[in-house]
Design a protein that fits this description.
This protein has 327 residues and is of the alpha/beta class. The protein has 14 helices and eight strands. Helix content is 39%, strand content 12%.
């Protein structure tokens, strides 16, 4: 037990150095909701934001984003997803936890929220790991329904490498070694965030057998969840931003659901993958209706300018944009 506690302490010390990651878990039963994700007034839909690793719901940066959303589209009600009662607990939950329980908590929180639960729909904005978490929300419950989902630098196809360690950072290196040796263990897959969205193209058998989250929400196993696809098809728009100089997320093309072959240095784009061709998630359907967008954000991971965010809010979250894309 002492060794396990030491591992957890070392993990937290290492993860403080990391910028972006995600937790994969076992499936939740998807829920259907018959409400149309279309507004009926000139008021912008509420905006739900899920932050990334190491952040918390009270962070100044997030609050400034909420202020910008409201100044860009007056009347916007912004809700920041929280997984802990305090900022510290919320931050810790981005490192350690069970994503099945976390997504389930968010499903409950949003469906019972006094404002969000009464909205005809919500818009959703996910930063880094928060992007695929919000996608899991859409697929697994979606009450209230998401109208437009925008993700920045998210790991929709997982990561194939963990965070690099400095040569003299022995805490990081010892944790990294343990993680690489035990990636598919129950302990790691149920508790450590980065391992649970890890996807090694060279070890797909291990991934499909043991991944607690990503293999499920990407519908990659033989038995497909039809509700995941039908819920995704209800989106009015799904917008994915990839950071042009992203070195934190490996491969960066994961933001587009693309597959990267490290040996050949080749990228297989989403449209050339079985996930798209057989339409496991409804992405082909969305693309065919002009509802799937692939966009570039210049710079490194999570280097977001006010101009880019303002353009995003105007383009995708304004009342007029929502009306035009509804139905």
């Amino acid at each position: 037990m002492a060794g396990m506690l030491k591992l957890i302490v070392s993990t937290l010390a290492f993860l403080r150095l990391t910028l972006a990651a995600t937790i994969p878990q076992k499936p939740l039963a998807a829920v259907q909701d018959e409400r149309l994700a279309s507004p009926t007034s000139s008021t912008p839909l509420p905006l739900v934001v899920w932050h990334g690793l190491g952040d918390n719901y009270k962070a100044d940066g997030l609050r400034s984003i909420g202020s910008l959303a409201n100044s860009t589209n007056p009347g916007t009600y912004t809700y920041f997803i929280r997984l802990g009662d305090t900022p510290s607990a919320d931050r810790t939950a981005t490192f350690l936890g069970n994503l099945t329980e976390q997504v389930q908590k968010v499903c409950h929180d949003l469906s019972t929220h006094p404002i969000l639960s009464r909205a005809p729909a919500i818009n959703a904005l996910g930063f880094s790991q928060g992007g695929q978490f919000l996608r899991a929300y859409v697929q697994r419950c979606n009450i209230p329904p998401v109208h437009t989902l925008v993700t920045f630098g998210s790991q929709h196809n997982g990561i194939s490498e963990f965070q690099n360690c400095a040569d003299d950072d022995w805490i990081c290196r010892s944790w990294d070694g343990y993680l690489k040796r035990n990636t598919w263990s129950n302990f790691v897959q149920s508790r450590l965030v980065p391992a649970q969205y890890y996807r090694d193209p060279e070890d797909l058998d291990g991934y499909l057998e043991s991944s607690n989250f990503l293999a499920d929400i990407n519908n990659e196993r033989d038995v497909k969840n039809a509700n995941y696809k039908s819920n995704m098809k209800k989106l009015a728009r799904f917008v994915m931003y990839m950071f042009s100089e992203d070195t934190t997320v490996v491969p960066k093309e994961s933001a587009y659901f693309a597959e990267y072959n490290e040996t050949s240095d080749e990228v297989t784009k989403l449209q050339d993958r079985k996930l798209y061709k057989e339409d496991w998630l409804g992405l082909k359907d969305l693309d065919g209706r002009g509802r799937l967008e692939f966009r570039i954000a210049e710079g490194g991971h999570m280097q977001l300018s006010e101009e880019l965010l303002e353009d995003t809010f105007k383009r995708y979250f304004g009342a007029n944009a929502t009306k035009d894309e509804g139905g």
